[in-house]
Amino acid sequence: MASPFFSDFGLMWYLEELKKKEFMKFKELLKQETPLLGLKQISWAEVKKASREELANLLLRHYEEQQAWDVTFRVFQKLGRRDLCEKAMRESTGNAKIYQTHMREKFTDFLSRESIPTMHEQLDMNITQEECKFLELLFEPEKQTRILCLLGAQGVGKTTFLAKMILAWSKGFVYQDRFSYIFYFCCKELKQLPATSLAGLITRAWPGTSAPVSEIMAHPEKLLFMADSFEELGSDLAEPEDELCSDWAEVQPPKLLLSSLLRKKMAPECCLLVTVNPRAGQDLEDRLEDPDIRELTGLKEFDVKFYICHMFPDRRRALEAFNVILNNEQLLSMCRLPVLCWLVCTTLKQEMDKGIDVALTCQRPTALYSSFLLDLFTPEGADGPSWQGQAQLQSLCSLAVQGMWTNTMVFREKDLRRNGIGSSDLSALLELRVLLPCWETEGLYKFLHSSVQEFCAALFYLLKSPGHHSHPAVRGTQDLLLTFLEKSRAHWVFVGCFLFGLLHERECQKLDAFFGFQLSSEVKRQLYQCLQQLAKVADKLQGQVSFLALFYALFEMQEEAFLNQVMDLMQDLAFSVFIETDLRVAGYCLKHCSNLRKLSLSAQGVFKEEGREQSSVSSSELLCWHQVWSVLRTCSQLQMLQVKDGTLNESAMLSLCQQLRQPNCLLENLFVNNVTFHCESWTLFEAFPHNPNLKYVNLSNTQLGRDDVKVLHGALSHPTSSVEKLLLVNCNLSADDCKALAATLMESKKLDSLNLSCNNLKKGVRALCKALCHPNCTLKFLALSFCTLREWCWDYLAEVLLISKSLSHLDLSINSLRDEGLKVLCDTLRYPVCALQILCLMKCSITAEGCRDLASVLTSSRNLRSLQIGGNNIEDAGVKLLCQALAQPSCLLETLGVEDCGLTSACCEDLVTVLTTSKTLFMLNLLQNPLDHGGVALLCQGLRHPECALRVLGLNSAEFGEETQALLTAEEERNPDLVILDTW
């Protein structure tokens, strides 16, 4: 509908405002723009000779009034006459008012229809002053927020939040000066659309047949676009920049249109509000420029209690229901989502009415969902379902599984018919509210909640073989399990748990009674076979498989014998826990392990509750952690435990230390990486002397205080400590901490390896060097890379090299050694008493001049076997000096690393001399050097020499052309003892 303003003033008035040249340009642009808006072109002969008045009449004769204005407005923008666009916008408010009225009616209707019965009434949908204040803060002009991401689980109320926001705007409560238009896009429904344009999407949302798109897009800073359930589009916002579109009239797939908006290629001045589930939200946050991230957490405990009181007028029953929910974490978590709160309360009421123990019904989510659905399809007062009810549920399961495998949450009527749901069935399913109509688009339907769809999909596998499904995308039971365990699957949240849960004896009995036949007994065997195969390759699938999801599935099944069988298969497990339920479920499964060898766990945010002391200890927490850490004493083959990327509170620490102290704890390797202690970390260190098997401790990336280091010193220096290797990389150590570490080196009887890389040690190295010179120090390996060492260090280290009888491996990489410092070290390395065998000086600012000193070491040292100097700009001149030394019979070097040293093919003749004369050089790393085909061909000649001893060559064939690649491949085939590595 066009504004009366345009009828009163007409287009001619605006055309009269154009200068002569602008008017001619207007005609030319008109010819270009009309097809873009899907309008039939007016004869160019008529347009070319038309006056301003005649052209206005032509436009109104050929197009509807709004279309005529739309194309005029678009051409004004192309001409740069924003003044005319702004004048029209100021003088014409009719369109905005019409649209606001439409949105008010539309979303009032949505809230009344979409809401679960009684939920709408009890959880007030009226907009309060407090809510208006909150909404205004989201898009304050001074904050310059352009993109707002609203995170929340499916069903938490994201769409309802948007609806209330639109209602508040349409009623004039908020954003009156901020937004002229707010457009809502449901991504579930956009996914069903063919290619269109942003103009097409706006027109689709408009109350009439023709939207004033040009008028709307003339002021993009006054627009807010809402994209609801963005994850449904499957977009990762990773399209190349040149694929994005900037023109709102350009026809593209809806996914690309939203990407273009979000990445500010199209209408960069507009604002966007995107709702997304938390899993996809992280990817969105990483891709967008400075988004504002908010989270919806759902109903509060008070809201749940309020709703229960309404559902259960009987006070005793209401209290019983509330206590059941409050004492079950999974149930309480479900009830934070309004639609699932209704589902839970409805089921509890049904079970109470039948006199069934609701505590038993709510023990597992599967039991709750099966009771809810089976009761829905059982007529009131009947002993069992009708055959129509049985058939309808089976058809619903068929539809659900098709949706899972085709990534479909919204279904067309043809999908329903394909799965046996006719018109009468659809009416029944809508009345039961197990299916809901999509309010945006007629003829589209969705399940009450995605979890209901997943339950029905799982049930399908017990009712029929997947091969009986008419859709080719539907795959077998084993594929279902593997897909469920993939971390990348956004929609597969519960289906695996439901599948395992339906195998519980009580569930099988319920389902057998409902359907009148015994369900498939093959499923359990198929699941076990799948897990057998998975266990064999678990170490290769780290990061791809969610073992926590498997734990939840096994927990849902609650069958000890099957659980023992499955957990006996597991040798390598890695998972993260986020809430206490995760920990409880993991502990339930882990205590049944017997063959576990490696366990990696990340505790992210567990037990972080508002208003609660982080160090407080509860019996439930201790029990959870006790079950998790019990593998330390029950799994005799467990060799490695890694706790990483998270938090350890007092409960976790106390339980871990208790298990580490047990005589039957045979753990050898302990990793505690990037962990924050919400307790006294020294408790962990005090456990070390009580475990004679613990040999390797890695605390890298975990920040240690001075007191921590002192306690660590005491533990490692204890006569019963067996720790041999200690890694403290990037632990925020300082020069003062080196005193305690130095004392450890002198007192520990077992420690032979220490890595202190990436710590700002500075002058603390002096204390370490004194300790290394002490006769009681038996350290063999020392890494001090990236420790900000300076000139005064080299003399101390040179003294260590001269005096220490044990130090055989020294890593000083990424320190400012330079040629001057290298000379100091080389003067000592030449002494026969120097025991060093491996020296790493990567990225130490060494030049070709420094190679002169290294060359003299290579010909005089009787112990040095490996030299790593990659990342230094020694160039061909430096390598020439090294090669002259390597070719000498007195040089005993076995490994040389000169990757990324600026070498060219000019040095290959020198390298060939080494290959043909050295009796000891076994490994040579030449990666990341700009060699050409001629240089590689020379190297291959050297490799073919009968006296060549080289067995490992670092050279990335992918960096060369086809001819060179063929040469290297032929060389490897010719010499079976030679390995050419593309990474070192």
Summary?
With 984 residues, the chain is of the alpha/beta class. The protein has a 15-stranded parallel beta sheet with strand order 9-10-11-12-13-14-15-16-17-18-19-20-21-22-23. A five-stranded parallel beta sheet has the order 2-3-4-1-5, sandwiched between helices. A three-stranded antiparallel beta sheet has the order 6-8-7.
- Report the portion of residues in β strands: 5-15%
Low-confidence stretches: 1-9, 609-615
Q: Helicity range of the residues?
A: 40-55%
Question: What's the number of extended β-strand segments?
Answer: 23
Q: Which CATH top level class of the largest domain fits?
A: Alpha Beta
How confident is the prediction overall: mean pLDDT?
A: 88
The overall number of domains is: 5
According to CATH, the fold-level topology of the largest domain is Rossmann fold
Cα(first) to Cα(last) distance is 69 Å
Output the structural class: alpha/beta
- Helical region count? 47
User: How would you describe the shape?
Assistant: globular
* CATH architecture label name of the largest domain: 3-Layer(aba) Sandwich
Radius of gyration over C-alpha positions, nearest whole angstrom: 36 Å
Widest sheet: strand ordering: 9-10-11-12-13-14-15-16-17-18-19-20-21-22-23
Instruction: Give the biggest sheet.
Output: 15 strands, parallel
> Mind telling me the CATH superfamily name of the largest domain?
P-loop containing nucleotide triphosphate hydrolases
Function: May be involved in inflammation and recognition of cytosolic pathogen-associated molecular patterns (PAMPs) not intercepted by membrane-bound receptors.
Family: Belongs to the NLRP family.
Protein name: NACHT, LRR and PYD domains-containing protein 4
GO molecular function, one term: ATP binding
